[in-house]
Write a structure and sequence with these properties.
Elements: H1 13-16, H2 22-26, H3 30-43, H4 55-70, H5 72-115, H6 123-152, E1 181-187, H7 195-202, E2 208-214, E3 221-228, H8 231-239, H9 241-244, E4 251-255, E5 277-278, H10 284-301
Antiparallel strand pairs: 1-3, 1-4, 2-3, 2-5
């Protein structure tokens, strides 16, 4: 693996010590790392490689990586960063497979349509139409949802977004700038992050106005919407990815603006009927909208 200086982002310190990387490396004890260092320092000492012009630099790199892995805090952050890279690569591969399957399905439908006597349609055009249809569905459902909220807000009590920490949308229902809204997701335990825990994390970037946690049937995946008090706070949160990777369950944070869909709103339900969103009393309709926003976001990222 190419290095950008021993403290650089691209150095795999386990590989420098000829140790396994990834989850296997994270599980190594300090004693195992010390043993590997002693072995490699004997084998790679410059005195034993007089004809190698890179021997001194290599030995210094070995010592630097050993010192790095001896630091518990640095090692924990490094393991989280490696885990984030692996998960990002896995997501990219899965997205590619999903996209290829979608194109293949569209092409198959186009061939079937043409075989039935209809005019041939370009697969790219079919994909564009499908994206447009999904965006229209999201806009329609959002319009219906907000119309229902507006009609019932005068007769409904304000529901806190997470416990007694944050309030919902004010009764006059002002629009929330979508530049202030963040989408957060994680894998490794749907119940790992609570609204209070997310508030503790994101308030370091600015005031948090609202948090909505959407639980899923999957026990391993979770997601949430976070409304910051300003665009600047949301942008600061987006830029500090390293903060989220130090946790045992890393967070994936994106802006609602990336979806290219209609504006999102701060959350408050006007109806007593609840759904599967933790601590908010949200309607089933918003759960559907949230899911479709994510689908549109994934399509646009491709």
């Amino acid at each position: 693996m190419a290095a950008m200086g021993q403290e650089g982002e691209d150095v795999d310190h386990y590989e420098v010590l000829r140790l396994p990387s990834g989850e296997e490396g994270a599980a190594l004890s300090v004693e195992q790392i010390e043993k590997a260092y002693r072995t490699q320092s004997r084998l790679r000492h410059p005195d034993k490689r007089p004809d190698d012009p890179n021997a001194t630099a290599d030995f210094q790199s070995l010592a630097s990586s050993y010192k790095f892995l001896r630091d518990e805090s640095l090692r924990r952050q490094f393991d989280a960063r490696l885990r984030g890279r692996r998960e990002a690569a896995a997501r990219a591969a899965a997205t590619g497979v999903k996209r290829r399957k979608a194109v293949s399905d569209l092409e198959e439908r186009e061939r079937a349509f043409a075989a039935g006597g209809g005019p041939a349609v370009d697969p790219v055009e079919l994909a564009r139409r499908e994206d447009k249809r999904k965006a229209a569905d999201v806009k329609r459902e959002l319009d219906e949802f907000f119309a229902a909220k507006k009609s019932g807000v005068s007769g409904s009590a304000s529901t806190p977004a997470h416990g007694d920490k944050k309030g919902g949308t004010p009764e006059n229902g002002p629009k929330t700038d979508k530049g202030k809204i963040l989408k957060v997701s994680w894998e490794g335990g749907a119940d790992y992050y609570t609204a209070a825990k997310l508030d503790e994390i994101f308030k370091q970037f600015g005031t948090v106005e609202d948090i909505v946690i959407k639980t899923r049937k999957s026990k391993s995946k979770g997601s949430a919407i976070i409304v910051m008090a300003s665009k600047e706070a949301a942008q600061t949160a987006l830029k500090n990815h390293s903060v989220y990777n130090v946790f045992p369950v890393p967070l994936i944070v994106a802006s609602v603006q990336e979806s290219g869909g209609p504006p999102a709103r701060s959350t408050q339900t006007p109806e007593p009927r609840t759904s599967n969103i933790d601590g908010t009393g949200f309607s089933d309709l918003e759960a559907s909208v949230f899911r479709k926003l994510q689908e549109i976001s994934n399509e646009c990222i491709l």
